[in-house]
Automatic annotation (TrEMBL):
This is M42 glutamyl aminopeptidase. Belongs to the peptidase M42 family. It comes from the Bacteria. Its cofactor is a divalent metal cation. The keyword Protease applies.
Length: 342
């Protein structure tokens, strides 16, 4: 298999640099659309803004759907405080401690951007002693210090900042000489790049998928409704989303994950066996994931009533929904499984 790893890593870094918390994904979607045009694939949009590609396969009697989501964690301004700082409410599930001290961008309705930093309301140990160490990290105890001369609610509102504005966190993307890539939001922008790498492989090698294939780039996965409309001819849905690396998750950053269960449901046994057989046949290194707190676009669609077979695969990632990390070997194994299976 001739894989263009440099392409995958380059697009990963590029799409990571475009803020796209769930609900604020148009710019990222436009960049993906531009890439699809460059690769020669036609696309359409759903009413919710999901990008959809339909590709004719070698066998037209069976139809698959492959998805990856471009939306990420983030926040919304909940309140402009009397001191000019901002209280936030989260988008998606993460611990406030995971973003403490992180720089942020406030995206206003008139397309202005302002920088700031998320801090505890009592941040300095010099001033508050043990309170900063012991204070619970909950939304009410966190605030954004804006990098503007604002000292009151009216000062901040004069900038055009108000409740409802989207907030994105800096990603701090870095690829190490040892082959690790670390960044916020590898979930799921790395998978977006891997899907595009798979499509590039088809183009470069003048190949078709094994079966008719829909490719979805969804935009509301982190809030539970990424793929809410599925064509009636779809027989099988495979979500490309991150695997988990932790003591009880069985993940390995240098391998691809094939999920067996998440906190919503078990995955389809028949499809999981086929995925594992494809990996075994092609010498692809993988782990089988059993997850306590996890969901994917595939299982969300099942809970919404979709009648199809479903699975989830993806690169194993350490410290998910925090400052995430994986290895280029696992990225390659994931793309190899896409090529072998689809």
């Amino acid at each position: 298999m001739k894989l263009d790893l440099n392409y995958t890593l380059q697009f990963t870094q590029e799409i990571l640099a475009i803020p796209s918390p769930a609900g604020y994904t148009e710019k990222a979607m436009n960049r993906i659309a531009k890439e699809l045009e460059k690769l020669g694939f036609k696309y359409s949009y759903s009413k919710k803004g999901c990008l959809i590609v339909k590709i004719e396969g070698e066998d037209s009697t069976y139809t698959r759907l492959l998805s990856a989501h471009v939306d990420t964690l983030g926040a919304v301004v909940k309140k402009v405080k009397s001191n000019g700082r901002l209280e936030l409410i989260n988008i998606g599930g993460y611990a406030w401690g995971s973003v403490e001290g992180e720089n942020v961008i406030i995206h206003t309705l008139d397309d202005k951007e302002y920088e700031g930093t998320l801090l505890p309301i009592k941040a300095s140990v010099h001033v508050y002693g043990d309170i900063p160490r012991e204070m619970p990290r909950i939304a009410e105890n966190m605030e954004v210090r804006l990098d503007e001369e604002v000292y009151s609610e009216s000062d901040t509102r004069a900038l055009g900042i108000c409740q409802g504005d989207f907030v994105s966190y800096y990603t701090k993307t870095k690829i190490t000489e040892s082959g690790y890539i670390k960044s916020r939001y590898l979930d799921d922008k790395l998978c977006v790049a891997q899907v595009l790498a798979y499509l590039k492989y088809l183009k470069d090698n003048n190949k078709k998928p094994n079966n008719n294939l829909y490719v979805y780039f969804s935009n509301f996965e982190e809030v539970g409704h990424g793929v809410s409309e599925i064509p009636k001819d779809v027989d099988e849905f495979v979500a490309l989303d991150i695997g988990l690396v932790a003591d009880d998750a069985h993940g390995d950053e240098k391998k691809v994950s094939i999920a067996a269960r998440d906190n919503k449901t078990v995955y389809d046994l028949k499809i999981r066996k086929k995925l594992q057989e494809a990996a075994d046949k092609n010498g692809i290194h993988y782990t089988v994931g059993v997850y306590n707190r996890y969901g994917s676009d595939a299982t969300a669609s099942i809970l919404q009533g979709a009648d199809l077979r479903y699975a989830c695969i993806g690169p194993n990632v350490d410290a998910t929904h925090h400052y995430e990390r994986t290895h280029v070997d696992g990225i390659v194994e994931t793309i190899k499984l896409l090529i072998a299976y689809f």
